[in-house]
Write a structure and sequence with these properties.
Layout lengths: L1 E9 L3 H15 L4 E2 L2 E4 L9 E10 L3 H14 L15 E7 L4 E3 L2 E3 L8 H10 L12 H7 L8 E4 L1
Antiparallel strand pairs: 1-4, 1-5, 2-4, 3-4, 3-8, 6-7
Length: about 160
């Protein structure tokens, strides 16, 4: 079993769509643990604020099979695969870490390359797993978050 961390985010009916995704993830992965929910500005385009969280769980699925399951959950939340990359999203589920796996083979690059650049990924992950060692940065997630420029990338905590 591999320990996996996935970022979830939405800026189209985000409360509704995140509730759907959380319920689906909890059914699919019964040991799921969820970070607090955070509001943040859209990154990469002009749009409504996103609400984001991170979920951690164990799985025996290989990375490709896991990605397929996550895409099914995105579709259940109204996500269209042919939507523009930098655009509003009903649901975005991104694998951040899959155990200690380091892989540069699209469609799944691990650890997620922008994890250390995006507050909406790193902050909630630090809430959930502060002592987890990042597989390539050589520091804990908590230490990486403390060193992050949090003032430049504000997050508003919404739910515990």
């Amino acid at each position: 079993m591999s320990e996996v961390y996935v970022a979830a985010g939405s800026n189209i009916e985000p409360e509704r769509n995140l509730a759907l995704a959380v319920a689906a993830l909890a059914r699919e992965f019964p040991d799921s643990r969820f970070s607090p929910w955070y509001r943040n500005r859209a990154a990469g385009f002009e749009g409504d604020d996103f609400i984001n969280l991170v979920v951690g769980f164990h799985t025996a699925l290989d990375p490709a099979a896991l990605l397929e399951r996550l895409r099914v959950i995105e579709a259940q939340c109204g996500r269209l695969r042919d939507a523009p990359r930098w655009a509003p999203r009903s649901m975005d589920l991104d694998v951040l870490l899959y155990g200690d796996l380091v892989c540069v083979a699209p469609p799944l690059n691990l650890p997620r390359p922008d994890l250390l650049k995006r507050a909406y990924m790193l902050g909630p992950l630090a809430d959930l797993a502060p002592d987890l060692q990042h597989p390539t940065a050589g520091k804990t997630i908590g230490a990486l978050w403390r060193a992050f420029d949090q003032d430049a990338h504000p997050l508003e905590r919404l739910r515990p």
